[in-house]
Amino acid sequence: MSTSTCTIDVNQLRVGLYVHLDLGWMDHPFTLSNFKLHNEEQIQKIKGIGLKTLRYDPKRSDCPPLPVKSNLNLIKPVLAAEQALAHAEESAVLAETTEPVIDAKLLRHKQLHHAIDESEKKFVVASDTIKNIQRNILSSSKQCLEQATLLVNDIVESTLCEGDIAIHALNGNRSSDAHYQHALNVTVLSMILAKSIEISREDAQLLGLAAILHDIGKLEVSDKILLKKDPLTHGEHAHYQLHSEFGARMVKSIGLSPRISKIVLQHHELADGSGYPAGLKAEQTDPLARIIVLANNYDSLCNPKNMSGAKTPYEALAYMFAHQRSKFDEDLLKRLIKSLGVYPPGSIVKLSNEQYATVVSVNPNYPLKPYVKIHSRQGKDEEDVIVDLREEVNINITACLKHAQIPAEVLKQINPRKRVSYFVDQAPETAAA
Q1: Which of 80, 209, 211, 235 is deepest in the core (most CB within 10 A)?
Q2: Is the pLDDT of residue 251 over 90?
Q3: Rounded to whole angstroms, how far apart are CA atoms 116 and 175?
C-alpha cells in the first residue's frame, strides 16, 4: 500500500477526491481501480459496492475529504434502526443498478479481447503463408501464386469491403517476433493506404500481389550481402540494388501481369528522383508503386535489419514527415499518418491517470481515441485491461513515449516486442454486432 494514501470512511467521499479501490477488476463497476471522483453518481456506486473504508491520495485530490460525521445521531435506537434499514434498501437498489454495468463492461472487455485474438490467429496463418511463398515461389510458382491470391483476397475483403476497420499491432500470446514478415507488413500497410483513396477492387488485388512479392528479387542476392551487419561496400550496395530488377524479371517469368512487374521494379523509386534503379520521380512511376514505396520505407524504419536503430511507430511517422517528406507522395504520407493515428498501433503511451499503456488497435476514423492495453501494476497475475478510449470521458493520452522515456521497471513489465507487426480486421464494435 502506498504511503501517500490515507484511509477514510466511505461517508467522507466527495467530488474531487482521488480514490483507490482495493478490489479486483470484476468486483467494482469502474474501468480503473484508482481515479478522481467527478460526480455524485460515482460516489453512490462506490457506496453501493459495500465498502466501509477506502484509500484516497491527498496529493492528487482537489480537496480534503468530508469531516467524519458525529455519532450523536445514533443515540436514538429507533432512528438507528431506520437508518440501517434505509441503508440496506439503498445498497440493494444500488447493487441492482451496478450489476448490469459490471456485466456490460465485462462483455465489452471480452469483445475487444476476442476481436484482437481472432485477428492474431489470422495473422499467424498469413505469416506462415508468406513464409511458404518466399521459400517455394520458384519451385512451385503455381501453388504459391494461388496461396498469395487467396491471402490478398482475404485482406482486400477485410480492409476495403467492410465498414470501419481496426489496425492491430500484434502483441498477444499467439504470435511472436518470429512471425514478423516484412512482406506481410508492407501488404497490410499498403491496403490501409488503399482504403483511404479511391481504388478499384482489381487495383487493390494487383497492389496486394505486388506488395507480397516486392522483395522476391532478393532470392538472387547473396546471403553474404543480405545478412551482413556491417555497412555494405559500394560494390555490395550496387549489387543489392539490383534486387528490384531481379524481382521484376522473376514476377514476369512466373506469369504475372506486366503491371505487377513494373510495380516491383519501381518499389524503391522515390518522389524526388533519388531512388533506384532508374531515378524516376513520382509522376513517372505507377500510382500503386508509390503506395508500396511509402509502406516499405515506414516498415523499414520500425523494423530495420539492425534493430538497435529501430524507431517507434510514432518516431517513424514523425521522421518521415519532418525529414523525408520530399521522398514520398505527400498526399499518401498524410493519409498514412491519418490512418495510423496520432498514436500508431504499437506505441507505448502515458495516460492522464499516470498509468502506462500500449496502443493495440486504431480505428482510422477516431485517431485520437485508440484501443489501449493498460498495464496493471498488480503484477503478471492481474490481466491487463483493454480499453476503448472513446468510451472513457476521464482518460486521455498525455504522451507518446520513446523507449528511453519509459521507466525501467515499466518497460520490463510491458516487455514490448522488438518488431512491430500489423494486421487489419473489422473494427471490434462491428465484429461484435
Answers
A1: 211
A2: yes
A3: 12
Highest mean pLDDT among 12-16, 95-99, 389-393: 12-16
Confidence of residue 79 (pLDDT cuts 50, 70, 90): very low
CB 260 within 8 A of CB 318: no
Percentage of the chain beyond pLDDT 90 is 45
Asked if 338 contacts 363 with a C-beta cutoff of 8 angstroms, the reply is no
Q: From the CB of residue 92, how many other CB atoms can be counted at a distance below 10 Å?
A: 11
Q: What is the mean pLDDT of residues 52-56?
A: 89
| Eight-state DSSP code of residue 345 | T
Q: Which residues contact 31 (CB under 8 A, 6 or more apart)?
A: 105, 385, 387, 392, 395
Q: Average pLDDT of 368-374?
A: 88
Q: Among 34-48, 86-100, 395-409, whose mean pLDDT is lowest?
A: 86-100
Domain annotation for the chain: domains and CATH numbers: 6-105 (no CATH), 106-431 (1.10.3210.10)
* CA distances, 183 to each of 48, 127, 196, 295 (Å): 53, 9, 20, 10
Q: Rg (Cα) of the chain, in Å, rounded?
A: 27
To the nearest whole number, what is the mean pLDDT of the chain?
A: 84
- Secondary structure class of 99 (helix, strand, coil): helix
Q: Rounded to an integer, what distance in angstroms lies between the CA atom of residue 346 and that of residue 335? A: 18
CB–CB of 350/411 below 8 Å? no
Let me know: does 393 contact 382? Beta carbons within 8 Å. Answer: no
Q: What is the DSSP string of 210-261?
A: HHHTTTGGGGGS-HHHHT--SPPPHHHHHHHHTHHHHHHHHHHHTT--HHHH
Per-residue pLDDT at 24:
59
Pairing status of strand 356-362 against strand 348-351: antiparallel
Q: How many CB atoms sit inside 10 A of residue 296's CB?
A: 20
The reported pLDDT for the residue numbered 99 is 47
Task: Please state, in angstroms and rounded to a whole number, the distance separating the CA atoms of residues 42 and 51.
Answer: 13
